[in-house]
From TrEMBL:
<dbReference type="GO" id="GO:0005524">
    <property type="term" value="F:ATP binding"/>
</dbReference>
<dbReference type="Pfam" id="PF00005">
    <property type="entry name" value="ABC_tran"/>
</dbReference>
<dbReference type="InterPro" id="IPR003439">
    <property type="entry name" value="ABC_transporter-like_ATP-bd"/>
</dbReference>
<protein>
    <submittedName>
        <fullName>ABC transporter ATP-binding protein</fullName>
    </submittedName>
</protein>
<keyword id="KW-0067">ATP-binding</keyword>
<feature type="domain" description="ABC transporter">
    <location>
        <begin position="10"/>
        <end position="241"/>
    </location>
</feature>
<dbReference type="InterPro" id="IPR050763">
    <property type="entry name" value="ABC_transporter_ATP-binding"/>
</dbReference>
<keyword id="KW-0547">Nucleotide-binding</keyword>
<dbReference type="InterPro" id="IPR027417">
    <property type="entry name" value="P-loop_NTPase"/>
</dbReference>
<comment type="similarity">
    <text>Belongs to the ABC transporter superfamily.</text>
</comment>
<keyword id="KW-0813">Transport</keyword>
<dbReference type="InterPro" id="IPR003593">
    <property type="entry name" value="AAA+_ATPase"/>
</dbReference>
<dbReference type="InterPro" id="IPR017871">
    <property type="entry name" value="ABC_transporter-like_CS"/>
</dbReference>
<keyword id="KW-0536">Nodulation</keyword>
Amino acid sequence: MTDTQKPLAIRCKGLIKVYSTKHSEMVVAVNRLDLEVKAGECFGLLGPNGAGKTTTVEILEGLLSPNTGDVELFGKTWAQDEPWLRERLGISLQHTHLPERLTVRETVELFRSFYAPRGRNVDETIDLVALKDKEDARFETLSGGQRQRLAVACALVGDPQLLFLDEPTTGLDPQSRRMLWEVVLAFKLQGGSVLLTTHYMDEAERLCDRVGVIDHGQMIALGTPKELIESLGGQQIVEFTLEDGVEVNLEPLGALPSVHGARWHTGRVSLTVSQLHEALPALLAHIDGIGGKLTSLSTHHATLEDVFVNLTGRQLRE
Ligand SMILES: Nc1ncnc2c1ncn2[C@@H]1O[C@H](COP(=O)(O)OP(=O)(O)OP(=O)(O)O)[C@@H](O)[C@H]1O
């Protein structure tokens, strides 16, 4: 089967989900969302708190019903093919409560028993999430990172074709985050498809073939991390502040050599730049010319965070 003939791992069209709150207010959590994830792809849904990521993922996982819209996973629907889908999906929710008194091994064995005869070997799964030395430890004694890896082991032990990971590394230390990234990359190498949500741009850039940026329940940008960053028009971001009293006009800044955009961002001026060695001398001369004095100046490689700021004027993690 060629790639174009393979059913998509995820296809959803026109999803809308409206919640009504205790005070009878309506919250549009997902607003006409379309999404396609290819088999074998790792797709990242990025967005700030409350953007609608978890709601979208829970609809795709068959845990919530949308008000309207269609969902197909591998060409199957929740209404017609729930048992087939349940066997082929691995789900790690944002918060997982596993039985406190069960050990790591007992927990993985329990989840493995749900999937018989399909499923992975328990030892291999525990190894995969690097919990071998903790296999006899009870859940209640595990650290946050170990608990999260155990949740991912439970999602993997059914040998899924599609893995849902909702903010898998939120709150983890850098080493635990990297360990989880390795697990996801290994799963992908074996041909698995992944949908993950994250606030972390480095995570998205490292793991995801494509990302969708979601805000107020709508997809506002879609592409590979590289494409989205290139859409800024420059690979570098220069940010600076000046001493009070000097008025900064963005228009002439945007016209400096190699500068592709200028905007205010959290009290600083932020420039999107292609060639630092051209832009910086021109910027310094300009600041001198308007009688300004720099109080800070920094540069960094453009990230997906900058893409989001550029699209919305806000930061992902405000
Ligand atoms: N059960 C609910 N009842 C009412 N409103 C809800 C409910 N669940 C979510 N919402 C609202 O729907 C919107 C989207 O929430 P959702 O949890 O999907 O966002 P998110 O992008 O996953 O955010 P986070 O990154 O904080 O988890 C938010 O405004 C949230 O307050």
